[in-house]
């Protein structure tokens, strides 16, 4: 395998100046449930559907020991952990806790970019309290979250978003990890590429094949080589490996769409496989929608054939939807005219857009409930 | 072909058939009406959109039997504008049809009658009759709940099925996923063993229009894929929706323990009044129940607020619940009596609405979270 080395470290990577914290609540939904029901403390808990086709939305650390993960089918989770206790999600409670946490953030900075109910980036370079180090800010925030909500959070402190997020994951749960500018490159070099944001199982497997296991391996690859191998993502990987991430913490960032796509190990041909892939993506989208309290009116699918030809199809509905079954139903209807597929399908994704936001706020605040036929 | 017909008769029949014809067609002949003059002295007019077909036979003076097809909307417009009381002479030859009435003369383009598509009815083993009035009730009390969302094609119609629950019944149901409407009547003779069917929305609409002109009974024959309505001079044939209607019984609540009895008219008027300022998108109306005081209110960020108290009969613990005003009005508009029962459970649970437990119609409405 040709892999031209082109080390170009150093000058660009010492990006200092900013102080970014990534806060991530530990096993959020499950922890809230354990907090509110003492009978669940120390027990393996899964928040999510118990129905036949349900998935785990969150798993407590006790459950994770058995291999139970979020997004896993409930049936599989139960097989892995027969004592698993299923709890119905209470999103209004999670939203309330999220609001509490954001009030704490607001005492330190206005530059808060929420990623979901339980995760946010904070830029504390110039914090309200004039605290000199981001480490101290993170320490105070974690202590206050514990005191005011009874829950634990992990924090990653660094000089950009990419490293901060990697760092918060580093000492989970209830951990604090600080990566100073002079440690950034070495920290990334040690990380397995599978932990990088944007590296899914298929990309990880391809990197594995190319001998790229860690951030250090990735850094040895040239920009051109990564571009050839991974297309548009190549550039991102090139910069990530060099700890370069200039993205600002954007408090005003409004999510326009919620999407999920998967690249497959083997190209898909059969209707059943394609439908299953759409269902998986629809469930991921529905989970994110539920987590953020959003619903959308437009469903689109993206389909890439083995020859890399890429199609998108979209449909806008009269009323917003957010549940997986409805999203998949529309996605299947969009897929139907493209079937049977002439070529193998290497990538399939589902996106929900026209989300309730801005003057659509009412869509979110006054939500029409649906009859439960299924 | 050569025939003469009264303008009024022609206009009325064309009025029926032309509404089956879609305004935009990719297949040109689908824009046309098939006109056939029979030796028995009738003019048969026929139109189709490939899923729905109508044939109407009216008396005419036939000089020369034959058939042709011309644009349905054009011929309808001509008939509309011809002088009242005139006799219209239709004659077809060499790719044209001539329409003559009084001093007006039209030469219309035709398409060959042999190209005109017909729905093959096949075998229609189930046959029964329903009084036109009963069929009207079944339609009027359910059709507003039909879904318009094409993705859920199996909800784009009224579901008819027979059942045995003590006595044999025929049920009609429609839902759009937010509300459900169902009417139950005694099973008519001949409907036993009838397959479950979903009658498409367009067929329901055309049928309903035709029913206004039928006095006696409607002759219904059907299979699992087609249905045919004999309506006096008109015969309406439709394909049925090829899909499975969801098991709607599971969404009908049976243990709602909070009962509100209220005058449907004042309830409806109150909802309509406060909804004036509701956001166009959601139409959300809040209903606060506190003893016998029912307060309807709307809060709109753009417009302001509105509230109205409506007297009701309510003894259960007080609470608040939100509904889409449009949906409430649709249902209340179908209640004939002077009280309506609203069976509630909580602000997120399906609500059952009916005149009383003897009433043939029943409605289930999901609330809005407000």
From TrEMBL, chain A:
The active site is at residue 119. Mg(2+) binds at residues 24, 118. It catalyses: DNA(n) + a 2'-deoxyribonucleoside 5'-triphosphate = DNA(n+1) + diphosphate. Coiled coil: none annotated. One of its GO terms (biological process) is SOS response. It is found in: Cytoplasm. GO terms for cellular component: cytosol. Residues 20-200 form the UmuC domain. GO terms for molecular function: damaged DNA binding; DNA-directed DNA polymerase activity; magnesium ion binding. Its main location: cytoplasm. The record marks 29 as: Substrate discrimination. Its EC number is 2.7.7.7. Binds 2 magnesium ions per subunit. Pfam families: IMS, IMS_C. Keywords: Cytoplasm, DNA damage, DNA repair, DNA replication, DNA-binding, DNA-directed DNA polymerase, Magnesium, Metal-binding, Mutator protein, Nucleotidyltransferase, Transferase. Poorly processive, error-prone DNA polymerase involved in untargeted mutagenesis. Copies undamaged DNA at stalled replication forks, which arise in vivo from mismatched or misaligned primer ends. These misaligned primers can be extended by PolIV. Exhibits no 3'-5' exonuclease (proofreading) activity. May be involved in translesional synthesis, in conjunction with the beta clamp from PolIII. Monomer. Belongs to the DNA polymerase type-Y family. HAMAP family: DNApol_IV. This is DNA polymerase IV. It comes from Rhizorhabdus histidinilytica. The lineage of its organism: Bacteria, Pseudomonadati, Pseudomonadota, Alphaproteobacteria, Sphingomonadales. The gene is dinB.
From TrEMBL, chain B:
GO terms for molecular function: 3'-5' exonuclease activity; DNA binding; DNA-directed DNA polymerase activity. Residues 1-119 form the DNA polymerase III beta sliding clamp N-terminal domain. The lineage of its organism: Bacteria, Pseudomonadati, Pseudomonadota, Alphaproteobacteria, Sphingomonadales. GO terms for cellular component: cytoplasm; DNA polymerase III complex. It holds the Pfam family DNA_pol3_beta_3. SMART domains: POL3Bc (SM00480). Belongs to the beta sliding clamp family. Its main location: cytoplasm. This is Beta sliding clamp. Keywords: Cytoplasm, DNA replication, DNA-binding, DNA-directed DNA polymerase, Nucleotidyltransferase, Transferase. InterPro entries: DNA_clamp_sf, DNA_polIII_beta, DNA_polIII_beta_C, DNA_polIII_beta_cen, DNA_polIII_beta_N. It is found in: Cytoplasm. Residues 250-369 form the DNA polymerase III beta sliding clamp C-terminal domain. Forms a ring-shaped head-to-tail homodimer around DNA. It comes from the Bacteria. Residues 129-247 form the DNA polymerase III beta sliding clamp central domain. GO terms for biological process: DNA strand elongation involved in DNA replication.
């Amino acid at each position: 395998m040709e892999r031209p080395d082109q080390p170009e470290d150093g000058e660009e990577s010492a990006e200092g100046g900013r102080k970014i914290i990534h806060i991530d609540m530990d096993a959020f939904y499950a922890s809230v449930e354990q907090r509110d029901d003492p009978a669940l403390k120390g027990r393996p808990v899964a928040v999510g559907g118990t129905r036949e086709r349900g998935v785990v939305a969150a798993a407590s650390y006790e459950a994770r020991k058995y291999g139970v993960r979020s997004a896993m089918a409930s049936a599989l989770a139960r097989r892995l952990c027969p004592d698993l206790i299923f709890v119905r999600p209470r999103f209004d409670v999670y939203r309330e806790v999220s609001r509490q946490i954001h009030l704490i953030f607001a005492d330190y900075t206005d530059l808060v970019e929420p990623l979901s109910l339980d995760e946010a980036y904070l830029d504390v370079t110039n914090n309200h309290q004039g605290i000199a180090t981001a480490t101290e800010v993170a320490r105070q925030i974690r202590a206050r979250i514990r005191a005011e909500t009874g829950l634990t959070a992990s924090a990653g402190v660094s000089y950009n978003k990419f490293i901060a997020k990697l760092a918060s994951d580093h000492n989970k749960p209830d951990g604090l990890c600080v990566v100073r500018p002079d440690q950034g490159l070495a920290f990334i070099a040690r990380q397995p590429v599978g932990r990088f944001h944007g590296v899914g199982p298929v990309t990880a497997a391809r990197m594995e094949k190319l001998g790229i296991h860690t951030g250090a391996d990735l850094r040895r690859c040239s920009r051109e080589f990564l571009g050839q191998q991974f297309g548009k993502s190549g550039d991102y990987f090139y910069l990530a490996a060099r700890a370069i991430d200039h993205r600002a913490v954007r408090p005003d960032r409004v999510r326009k769409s919620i999407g999920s796509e998967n690249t497959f190990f083997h190209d898909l041909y059969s209707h059943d496989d394609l439908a299953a892939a759409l269902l998986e993506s629809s469930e991921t989208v529905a989970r994110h929608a539920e987590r953020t309290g959003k619903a959308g009116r437009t469903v689109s699918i993206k389909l890439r054939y083995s020859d890399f030809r890429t199609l998108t199809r979209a449909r806008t509905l009269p009323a917003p939807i957010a549940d997986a079954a409805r999203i998949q139903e529309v996605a299947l209807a969009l897929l139907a005219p493209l079937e049977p597929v002439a070529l193998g399908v290497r990538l399939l994704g589902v996106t929900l857009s026209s989300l309730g936001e801005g003057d659509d706020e009412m869509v979110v605040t006054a939500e029409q409930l649906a009859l439960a036929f299924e | 072909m050569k025939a003469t017909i009264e303008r009024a008769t022609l206009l009325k029949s064309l009025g029926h058939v032309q509404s089956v014809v879609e305004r935009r067609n990719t297949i040109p002949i689908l824009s046309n009406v098939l006109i056939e003059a029979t030796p028995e002295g009738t003019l048969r007019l026929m139109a189709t959109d490939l899923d729905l077909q109508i044939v109407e036979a009216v008396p005419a003076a036939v000089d020369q039997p034959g058939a042709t097809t011309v644009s349905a909307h054009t011929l309808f417009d001509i008939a509309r504008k011809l002088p009242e009381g005139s006799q219209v002479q239709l004659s077809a030859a060499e790719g044209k049809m001539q329409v003559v009435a009084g001093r007006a003369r039209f030469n219309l383009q035709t398409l060959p009658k042999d190209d005109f598509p017909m729905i093959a009815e096949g075998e229609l083993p189930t046959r029964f009759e329903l009084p036109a009035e009963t069929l009207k009730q079944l339609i009027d009390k359910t059709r507003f709940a039909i879904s318009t969302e094409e993705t859920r094609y199996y909800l784009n119609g009224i579901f008819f099925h027979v059942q045995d629950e003590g006595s044999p019944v025929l049920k009609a149901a429609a839902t759009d996923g937010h509300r459900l409407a169902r009417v139950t009547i005694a099973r008519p003779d001949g409907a036993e063993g009838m397959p479950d069917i979903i009658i498409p929305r367009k067929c329901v609409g055309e049928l309903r229009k035709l029913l206004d002109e039928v006095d006696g009974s409607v002759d219904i024959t059907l299979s699992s894929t087609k249905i045919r309505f004999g309506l006096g001079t008109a015969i309406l044939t439709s394909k049925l929706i090829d899909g499975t209607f969801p098991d709607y019984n599971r969404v009908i609540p049976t243990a709602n323990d909070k009962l509100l009895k209220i005058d449907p008219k004042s309830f409806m008027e109150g909802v309509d009044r406060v909804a004036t300022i509701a956001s166009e998108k959601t139409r959300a109306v809040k209903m606060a129940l506190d003893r016998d005081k029912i307060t309807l209110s709307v809060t709109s960020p753009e417009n302001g607020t509105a509230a109205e108290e409506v007297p009701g009969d309510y003894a259960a613990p007080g609470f608040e619940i939100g509904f889409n005003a449009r949906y409430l009005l649709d249902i209340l508009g179908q209640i004939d009596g002077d009280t309506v029962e609203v069976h509630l459970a909580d602000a997120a649970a399906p609500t059952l609405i009916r005149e009383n437990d003897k009433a043939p119609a029943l409605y289930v409405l999901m609330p809005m979270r407000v």
